[in-house]
Amino acid sequence: MCRPALLLTAALSVVGAAHAATSLPAPLPPVTPPGQVQPLAPGTRAAPVLPTLHLTPAIPEVRKVEVLGNGFIQAAHALVLVPSQEVSPQRALVLAVQSVQGAYRADPTLAEVDVSVYRAETYRGFGGPLPVLTLSVPRARLKTFQSEVAADTYDRVWTPQNMELPEPPGTPVQALERLPVFVGTQAELLKQRLEQSLAQAGGGVRGGLLFKGNPAQRQVALTFDDVPHPLYFPLVLDLLRRENAHATFFIIGRNAQAYPYFIRDLVQGGHELGNHTYHHVRLPHLTDAQIRAELQSTNALLTRLTGQPVRFFRPPGGEYSQRVLDIARSLGLTTVFWTDDPGDFQNPGVETVEARFTRHLRPGGIILLHDNAPDGLKALPDLLKVAREKGYGVVPAGALVR
C-alpha cells in the first residue's frame, strides 16, 4: 500500500474486518488503530504445568489439586469428577469437604482452597457444563466451615437449583480476545471507522462504545476478562488489595453462577462489574433474542448477587456488530474495548508481558488482562509499579467516563 493510502487508512482507524452482504462490494481490509498492535513473542507457548498436591488418604474422585501463588500467598483448587450414577448434592458436598481437609493437611501454608465437583461423563474443562457443586474455604474460615456447612449457613458453597442445566446457544469461545472484529455491511463498517477515529482522537464514549479514555488525563483503566476462575481469581484480588488498585472485571455469567461468592468478593473489594455474556459465545452469529438473553441474563445474575447495576460490556472474542451494539445499548450497557493487550494468555514470559505493557502505556489507555493467565498474574505487581512510576493513575473503566 502506498504511503497516502496508509495515512488515509490510519485516519479512519478501525479494528477488525467487515463481512459485507453478498449484494455489496467486497469489504475493505481490516485496519488497526494506533496502540493496538503488539510485538509478538517468538510464538505462543503452552501454559506452564502447575504443581499439584497429593492427598493422604487419596480420594479416588479427586482428579487433581493444583497449587498457585502470587508472590505473597498460595491457593489450591481441587477438581473432583463423580460418575453420573453417584451424583447427588449430598455426595458432592462430602467429597468437597474431604478435598478441602486433604489439601490443608497436604500444605498447611495455603491461604485458600477451592473445589469444583463435576459429572465425570460431561466434564469438558473449565467453561464447559456447569459443576454440580463448588466450595471455597479461605484459611480464616477453616475452623468453622464444617459446622456452618452442617447447619446450612456457610455462604461459600454453591449447588444448582436444577441439576439439569441448559446448554449454550452456540459454541463457547475458546479463542482469546485478540483484535476486535466488526461484522457488518460496508456502510456499517464506514460508520464504525468514523466513530473509532473520533474515539481515538478525543476519547470517551461514542455511539455506545468506549475505545479509549480522555487522552488529556494521565490515567489508564485496568480490565480483566473471563472472570472468575476458581484458582487464579482469589490471587488476583489479593494482589490488587495489596496494591490498593481497582479494576473492571468482565464476568462470564456461567462462571458467576458457579462461583457467586467470588463476585461478592469482587464488589466488596471496590471493583467494577462488567458483562462478558453468559456462555462466552460469539454474538454476531446469534439471533436478536439470543443476544439479548446472553446479556440480560448476565446483568440480572450480577445485580442479584451484588445489588449493583451493570454498566459495561465486552463481547467475547472481540466480535461485535451493529445489532450487538444496539441491543447492548438498549440494556443500558456501554461496550468497552481496549488499547493495550500485553498478550498475557500467550504465555510469552513475564518480561515480554511487561515490555509490551510499558511500550504501549498511553493516557486514557484501556489494558486487557485475564484472571487465569499465569504470566499476567506474575507480571501484575510490576505493571502497576511501572504505571505509577510513570505518573499514571490505575482505575476501573468507569473512571474514564466520569
TrEMBL record:
Residues annotated as signal peptide: 1-20
SUPFAM superfamilies per record: Glycoside hydrolase/deacetylase (SSF88713)
Sequence ranges assigned to domain NodB homology in this UniProt record: 218-395
Pfam families assigned: Polysacc_deac_1
Keyword Kinase: no
Family matches, as Gene3D superfamilies: Glycoside hydrolase/deacetylase
Protein name: NodB homology domain-containing protein
Entry keywords, A to Z: Hydrolase, Metal-binding, Signal
CDD domains linked: CE4_NodB_like_6s_7s
InterPro entries: Glyco_hydro/deAcase_b/a-brl, NODB_dom, Polysacc_deacetylase_ArnD
